[in-house]
Write a structure and sequence with these properties.
The protein has 443 residues and is mainly α. It has one domain: Amino acid/polyamine transporter I (Up-down Bundle), CATH 1.20.1740. Helix content is 73%, strand content 0%. Helix 1 crosses helix 13. It is globular, with a radius of gyration of 21 Å.
Length: 443
């Protein structure tokens, strides 16, 4: 058996705590803080969607972590998919993941600006200020990532700890209201009826908030003891995040009227403001901004790693694999920063909540081929136990279910961006001399 894994760049500087922080910090970006507004039209279907998503993502975490355990010397998901289905499939799957990642960065930047308007209302008074602010944040974290993965890891740990403070605060506030004013939970119960379409749509939106459980796996070439570290970080991060999401998501849904929640740019800040006064909402906004900055930091690293992986496999220009003296992929970070900037500016005509809701479905659509392929790779592998393969089947069914909820406009964006990868792959194979790549057995 020959290896499908090119030599990975950089040194192995990421340990368990940093990898866990990447999972928790990237999953809990600004999604949980902004998403209640996008979910408001679905009413109580949103809570059912959350439950389905948490179970489905738990299955995904088991499947993904076992790929890392089985192939510890591979450089991440590109090689895992390549082993099972060949290079062409691996390229298209990772191309979809790649474009969804830079859309993720645009979405996070938009969410951060939404909470900045709580602290500085003047930001929303002039049309050009929000997009310029979002662009400035994007490029600041490109510069941070140019310092290297270890520096990014420490920033991730600090911002992850800080972002957990307001989330625990929301849960505590919800419990306090339950005991001191239980009628508050019955005054604004959403009236949207339970329907198949609403449940499917809510599942797709909540899946966006859980995207990132694979973030310990993507930079596999920089992880110490990957066969142990990646599975542990993935499972710990998923369980912690799921527990927090279940506790947090129900509070704004029941304490804020449905129409007001749908129009909110900062729903969790509004919860605190309603219960404890305006100043508390501003304090929460500070923590949310810090958490969002941490997610932008982590996803910028993931974006650079995926771009560099393409280059190492010969499907992107080799210059994108080059690293600076800190071990950071300089050209990969700069090029993807430019692409993200274009995506952000081309969609900054909606309201912040409206744009967030649109972009998060585009991101989800781009991630689903990655999750489906990895789930199938585990399901079809003879090297996995029956229990793990059963989890992979559950993950595959969950991803198929989430696909049903994708609406036409974001689906069209996702399909067009995925199709744009076909000529890129064809051109890269022509440049490589048209060599045929044979997938490996045993994966």
């Amino acid at each position: 058996m020959t290896s499908v894994t090119p030599e990975a760049g950089g040194s192995r500087v990421l340990g368990l705590w940093m990898c866990t922080a990447f999972v928790v910090g990237n999953v809990i970006g600004v999604g949980i803080f902004v998403l209640p507004a996008s979910l408001a039209p679905y009413g109580l279907n949103a809570l059912s969607g959350w439950l389905i998503t948490v179970v489905g993502c738990s299955f995904l975490a088991i499947a993904l972590s076992n790929l890392a355990r089985t192939f510890p010397n591979d450089d991440g998901p590109y090689s895992y998919v390549k082993r099972a289905f060949g290079e062409a499939t691996a390229f298209i799957v990772m191309w979809c993941y790649w474009f969804s990642t830079w859309v993720t960065n645009a979405t996070i930047a938009v969410g951060i600006v939404g909470y900045l308007t709580v602290l500085v209302p003047a930001l929303s008074a002039t049309a050009w200020v929000p997009p310029v602010t979002a662009l400035s944040l994007l490029w600041f974290f490109v510069l941070i990532n140019l310092v290297g993965a270890r520096a990014v890891g420490w920033v991730q740990i600090m911002t992850t700890v800080l972002k957990l403070v307001p989330l625990v605060g929301v849960i505590c506030l919800g419990v306090w209201v339950l005991f001191t004013n239980p009628h508050a939970y019955t005054e604004h119960v959403p009236s949207a009826p339970a329907t198949f379409k609403a449940l499917s749509g809510a599942t797709t939106l909540t899946l966006f908030a859980m995207l990132g459980i694979e973030c310990a796996m993507v930079p596999a070439g920089r992880v110490r003891d990957p066969s142990r570290t990646i599975p542990r970080a993935t499972l710990i991060g998923t369980v912690v995040t799921a527990a927090i999401y279940i506790g947090v998501s129900v509070v704004p849904m029941l304490l804020i009227p449905q129409a007001a929640l749908a129009a909110s740019n900062a729903p969790l800040a509004d919860v605190f403001s309603r219960v404890l006064g305006d100043r508390s909402g501003q304090v929460l906004a500070i923590f949310v901004i810090v958490g969002g900055l941490g997610a932008l930091n982590g996803w910028t690293l993931i974006l650079g790693e995926v771009t560099q992986t393409f280059a190492r496999h010969g499907t992107f220009p080799r210059s994108l694999a080059k690293e600076n003296r800190h071990g950071a992929p300089t050209f990969a970070l700069i090029v993807t920063g430019a692409i993200t900037s274009v995506m952000l500016l081309s969609n900054y005509s909606d309201s912040i909540a409206g744009m967030f809701g649109f972009l998060n479905i585009v991101v989800t659509a781009g991630n689903l081929p990655f999750y489906l392929a990895c789930s199938l790779a585990v399901l079809l592998s003879s090297r996995q136990s029956l229990l793990v393969r059963a989890a992979a089947l559950g993950a595959f069914v969950f991803c198929a279910w989430a696909t049903i909820g994708i609406e036409p406009r974001p689906l069209a964006w996702a399909v067009c961006l995925a199709a744009a990868g076909l000529p890129v792959y064809w051109f890269s194979r022509q440049q490589a001399g048209g060599d045929r790549v044979t997938p490996l057995s045993g994966g």
